[in-house]
């Protein structure tokens, strides 16, 4: 590479640099510029090659670096493509060159527009001020494609750390892409990461996913300092939420579902601590198959119903009380009802098939008991008009939320009272069940309603009075 008297000196106007920068940060900026150029020029992937110990080459195949790129200004092309590129200003490149020079790394740049090396020289017109200059000579290869940067004297470990800043060189797998960025599966055993346009800006120990944000908010743009480090969660949490609320994949839903089940133990990922995200996770998960959402309290109160759901192939997901409350009446992303215990009860009841028994198939004793239905109904003033028929079934729906099989059922939609065949074992058993269901038909109340209990007590009182006459 040519240098010496024929070189033109371009003042980088740098005396001091950021003391916090290490060599890996400088190499990071050079890699970022190469990636941006590959993206904007739509040329092939960059290469990062180890030439020998402590000697590396970063190569892109774009339009080639010019000395004008060494000035500090906004790059209009990058400003027009904010979701595609990593950098915007000339500051990163200049800081990188200064850091490398200060730490003893020889930098050699080559493009079709010239060869560039770094040199300490007096500032023009101020011989007592020494600044960093780029020594630019005529190109050694006018047909050279892209830009080649050789770094001589940089430890291999620093280059590897530089590559580790980039999503492109990580092993994180994309789970879902949204309009705000990508949701990623973090590397097992390592902290989740927050990337902005493919470069890491923060790490999160208690996140379930890594995220690559490509649509930046004003707060994020302000928070992204020159070092792109120490970016606080408040700057990117809104975008993380937006990605999760826009998600619809089973991969994301299943992970969030597993985290929802850890809430009661306090070991859950932070994302499901956001109520709107937790609720949306349930909406996605519900659409993936047979899912039932319950609280810890419901697990204790309705063990039979939970066991029945599990035996029928449902995945039972334990959620917090506030999430459970938010799910009431909610639809999932496919438009179906989110399945809590109430929805499960309705679905299960609808799916049940009765085995009705014809009168001709009853035994003589069963017929004798069944024939008492009119007399029994008369004890409480006769059958309500809403009751169309009384039928006998070999089977009966289990009481989903109460446990055990019911002895009878009032179906408002069909106008039927259904009595289990086993209740025909005696007049007393049949009468008790029939009166119970007549009370349902007359009152319209369910078993757990206090008003129903009052009606039932009144009916029993009437029955006792009739029996004593």
Features of the shown structure:
Heat Shock Protein 90; 4 domains; five-stranded mixed β-sheet; 21% strand
Word description of this protein:
- The mean pLDDT is 85.
- Helix 1 packs antiparallel against helix 3 (91-102), helix 1 crosses helix 4 (156-163) and helix 7 (250-260) packs across helix 8.
- It is built from 16 helices and 17 strands.
- With 469 residues, it is of the alpha+beta class.
- A 7-stranded antiparallel β-sheet has the order 1-6-5-4-7-3-2, covered by helices on one side. A 5-stranded mixed β-sheet has the order 8-9-12-10-11, with helices on one face. A 3-stranded mixed β-sheet has the order 15-17-16, with helices on one face.
- It has 4 domains: 8-165, Heat Shock Protein 90, CATH 3.30.565; 171-232, no CATH class; 250-351, no CATH class; 359-468, Zincin-like.
Order of the strands making up the biggest sheet: 1-6-5-4-7-3-2
CATH 2nd-level architecture of the largest domain: 2-Layer Sandwich
The number of strands is 17
What is the SS-derived class?
alpha+beta
**Which residue ranges are poorly predicted, with pLDDT under 50 across at least 5 consecutive positions?**
none
Query: What's the shape?
Result: rod-shaped
Distance between the termini: 122 Å
Roughly how much helix do the residues carry, as a percent range? 25-40%
Discrete helix count: 16
- Report the portion of residues in β strands: 15-25%
State Rg.
37 Å
What name does CATH use for the topology of the largest domain?
A: Heat Shock Protein 90
How many structurally independent domains?
Answer: 4
The major beta sheet can be summarized as: 7 strands, antiparallel
Query: Can you give the mean pLDDT?
Result: 85
CATH class category name of the largest domain: Alpha Beta
């Amino acid at each position: 590479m040519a240098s010496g008297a024929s070189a033109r000196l371009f003042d980088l106007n740098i005396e001091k640099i950021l003391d916090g920068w290490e060599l890996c940060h400088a190499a990071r900026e050079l890699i970022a510029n190469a990636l941006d150029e590959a993206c904007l020029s739509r040329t092939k992937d960059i290469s990062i090659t180890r030439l020998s110990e402590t000697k590396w080459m970063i190569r892109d195949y774009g339009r080639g670096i010019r000395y004008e790129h060494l000035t500090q200004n906004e790059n209009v092309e990058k400003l027009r493509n904010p979701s595609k590129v990593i950098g915007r200003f000339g500051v990163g490149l200049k800081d990188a060159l200064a850091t490398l020079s200060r730490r003893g790394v020889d930098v050699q740049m080559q493009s079709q527009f010239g060869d560039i090396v770094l040199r300490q020289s007096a500032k023009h017109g101020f011989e007592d001020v020494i600044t960093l200059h780029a020594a630019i000579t005529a190109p050694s290869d006018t047909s050279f494609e892209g830009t080649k940067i050789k770094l001589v004297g940089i430890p291999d470990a620093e280059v590897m750390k530089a590559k580790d800043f980039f999503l492109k060189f990580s092993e994180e797998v994309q789970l879902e892409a949204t309009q705000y960025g990508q949701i990623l599966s973090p590397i097992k055993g390592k902290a989740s990461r927050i990337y902005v346009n493919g470069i890491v800006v923060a790490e999160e120990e208690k996140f379930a996913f890594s995220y690559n944000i490509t649509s930046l908010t004003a707060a994020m743009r302000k928070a992204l300092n020159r070092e792109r480090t120490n970016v606080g969660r408040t700057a990117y949490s809104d975008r993380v939420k937006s990605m999760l609320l826009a998600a619809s994949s089973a991969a994301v839903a299943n992970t969030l579902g597993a985290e929802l089940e850890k809430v009661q133990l306090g070991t859950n990922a932070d994302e499901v601590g956001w109520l709107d995200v937790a609720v949306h996770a349930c909406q996605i998960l519900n659409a993936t198959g047979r899912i039932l959402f319950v609280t810890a309290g419901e697990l204790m109160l309705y063990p039979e119903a939970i066991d029945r759901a599990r035996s029928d192939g449902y995945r039972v997901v334990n959620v917090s009380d506030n999430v459970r409350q938010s799910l009431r009446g909610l639809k999932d992303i496919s438009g179906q009802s989110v399945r809590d215990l109430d929805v499960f009860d309705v679905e299960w009841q609808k799916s049940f098939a009765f085995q009705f028994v014809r009168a001709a198939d009853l035994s003589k004793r069963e017929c004798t008991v069944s024939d008492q239905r009119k007399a029994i109904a008369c004890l409480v003033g006769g059958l309500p008009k809403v009751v169309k028929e009384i039928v006998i079934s070999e089977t009966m729906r289990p009481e989903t939320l109460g446990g055990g099989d019911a002895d009878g059922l009032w179906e408002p939609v069909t106008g039927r009272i259904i009595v289990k065949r086993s209740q025909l074992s005696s007049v007393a058993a049949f009468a008790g069940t029939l009166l119970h269901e007549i009370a349902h038909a007359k009152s319209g109340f369910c078993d757990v309603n206090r008003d129903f209990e009052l009606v039932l007590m009144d009916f029993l009182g009437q029955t006792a009075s009739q029996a004593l006459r």
